[in-house]
Amino acid sequence: MRGFAHDLHGPGVGLSGPRQSIADATEVSRSNTEKELLELPRDTADTVTVLPGPWLGQQGRLAQDEAGRRPRRLPSFTFISAYFAAFRPRPHPALPAEPSTGDQTLHLALQALDLADYAHVVTLVNEAIEQGISWDEGHAEAFNLRGTFKFLTGDVPGAEADLQASLEVLPTFTQSLIKLASVHMEQGDAQAAFKCFDDAIQVDEKDPDIYYHRGQVLFIMNEFTQAAENYTKLTELDDSFVSTHIQLAVAQYKSGNLASSMATFRRTSKAFPQRSEPHNYYITAVSSCWTNSGTKTPSRSSSGRQWKQDIGAAERCCAEALRIDRECEAAVAMLAQLSLQQSKIEQAVEYFGRQSALARSELELVSALTYRYASMSQVEFLKNYLQMAAQLSALARGI
Predict the structure, then answer these.
(1) C-alpha–C-alpha distance, residues 139 and 167, integer Å
(2) What does the alpha-carbon distance between residue 280 and residue 285 come to, in Å, rounded to a whole number?
(3) Which domains does the chain have, with CATH numbers?
(4) SS3 sequence of the chain
(5) How far does Cα 101 stand from its chain's mean position?
(6) How sure is the predictor about 388, in pLDDT bands with cuts at 50, 70 and 90?
(7) What are the ranges of the TPR repeats (predicted)?
(8) pLDDT by residue (tens digit) across 206-233?
(9) Which residues does 386 contact at the CB level (< 8 Å), separation at least 6?
(10) For residues 4 and 241, is the Cβ–Cβ distance under 8 A?
(11) 5-14: average pLDDT
(12) How far is CA 144 from the centre of its chain?
């Protein structure tokens, strides 16, 4: 699953089309980071060791087998917090005069959500639905909440069913419509997603969340002008939304104004010190500096120096992100790739192991485990076939 995200190269960075959903950016930043980090300047060929194709295929099959045995898990605290931060706070539905047990349990789940006790939220909302909820607004809220966490764990069909159940009892619940749009995007149905946005606007044209998330979808689809129109509408309705500032930085990056983008990220971090999202996106932006500069610098030596300098900057940003949140997936994934690109293979194995432990969906887990197994095989190859490894490195330099 991909989150409702901000994108630096096309939210979710380096997206492949409408199958990229519109949620949080941490996951998005990470997926594009992997793509960008593999596109090193040719100067660095001597640091890259070849991973033979047959090994990758074998390790991929092992990874798929292991992924099939893993239970679904919640994303990191940072990821979940960033997801919920993409929606404006709103009051919880008032309990009926004589609340049922399920009503009271739902109230506890919403209180746990306010405290960011996400594991407890999941337990409580499941219990509330099982116990039964007596009023329509609470019923819609419960299925919205459970569907949200199903989506975050990669259970897209389950999320769709819960969000549809929410809308059946409360068709005017715009947040469920917005989240259902993201589910349709994950399923590759952009037409259904935009229908959800249109329905939400018919219900409440002054809901800023609609324009933010529709803008994200348009951005993902490279419809930057239309996306900008939605962001502008959003700022007219609410200029205090942290994600608006982040998206401004993203837009500056997309327009090639990297210095302004960096400055906006830093200002946003200072303006919202309690929020970790700006750090996550800042990581990707900094790492992109060396990728882009490497393709534009005519001198091999200067390109190599720029690459090394920007690698160091990216690593420092990752370290800061992990200081804030030890389970920051974007930072772990980037450090794994940075280690691999610098031929620090054993260190890469460690980071890929951490990345696989943090993976939510089977796709993410297979990707992390494939890299990890391939890197482990590479370590063994280098130990046992040193002469052949040297020949492969020479081949890489000549490509």
Answers:
(1) 10
(2) 9
(3) 1-88+208-399 (1.25.40), 91-205 (1.25.40.10)
(4) CCCECCCCCCCCCCCCCCCCCCECHHHHHHHHHHHHHCCCCHHHHHHCCCCCHHHHHHHHHHHHHHHHHCCCCCCCHHHHHHHHHCCCCCCCCCCCCCCCHHHHHHHHHHHHHHCCCHHHHHHHHHHHHHHCCCCHHHHHHHHHHHHHHHHHCCCHHHHHHHHHHHHHHCCCCHHHHHHHHHHHHHCCCHHHHHHHHHHHHHHCCCCHHHHHHHHHHHHHCCCHHHHHHHHHHHHHHCCCCHHHHHHHHHHHHHCCCHHHHHHHHHHHHHHCCCCCHHHHHHHHHHHHHHHHHHHHCCCHHHHHHHHHHHHHHHHHHHHHHHHHCCCCHHHHHHHHHHHHHCCCHHHHHHHHHHHHHHCCCHHHHHHHHHHHHHHHHHHHHHHHCHHHHHHHHHHHHHC
(5) 36
(6) low
(7) 174-207, 208-241
(8) 999 999 999 889 888 877 778 777 877 8
(9) none
(10) no
(11) 39
(12) 20
Name which of 361, 328, 360, 281 is nearest 75 in CA terms: 360
b/e 175-185 (16+ beta carbons within 10 angstroms → b): bbbbbbbbbbb
State the Cα torsion 193-194-196-200 to the nearest 10°: 140
390: buried, middle or exposed (CB in 10 Å: 19+, 13-18, 0-12)?
A: exposed
Cβ-proximal residues to 362 (8 Å cutoff; 6+ apart), any chain? 64, 67, 68, 70, 154
Confidence of residue 288 (pLDDT cuts 50, 70, 90): low
Amino acid at 253: Y
Query: Residue holding tokens 């640091």?
Result: 47
With cut-offs at 50, 70 and 90, classify the pLDDT of residue 128: very high
- φ/ψ region of 93 (left if φ > 0, alpha if ψ in -120 to 50, else beta) reads beta
